[in-house]
Design goal:
Layout lengths: L1 H12 L5 E6 L2 E7 L1 H27 E4 L4 E4 H4 L1
Antiparallel strand pairs: 1-2, 3-4
Protein name: Phd-YefM
Organism: Ectothiorhodospira haloalkaliphila
Family: Belongs to the phD/YefM antitoxin family.
Length: about 80
């Protein structure tokens, strides 16, 4: 088992395999992945969170002025 795991670990660390799912009692209990692949995933998740916050802020701040096709802040309409 240890020798097989070592070979799988080398594949993951060399990015020959994307991820290694570890099972216990036929249930997945952990996922092992290359450090750079993990960092790339975390960076992408952070970018998506920032984009979602920006989109929410823009949606809350800008409205389309009927008939003009222009965007105005909601403060002007209040």
């Amino acid at each position: 088992m240890a020798r097989g795991f070592s070979a799988h670990l080398k594949e993951v660390s060399a990015r020959q395999t994307d991820r290694l799912v570890i099972f216990k009692d036929n249930q997945p209990v952990a996922v092992m992945m290359n450090v750079q692949a993990y960092q790339d995933l975390v960076d992408e998740l952070e970018d998506l969170r920032i984009e979602a916050v920006a989109r929410d802020r823009l949606t809350g701040y800008l409205t389309l002025t009927p008939g003009t096709g222009t965007l105005d802040s909601r403060d002007r309409h209040s």
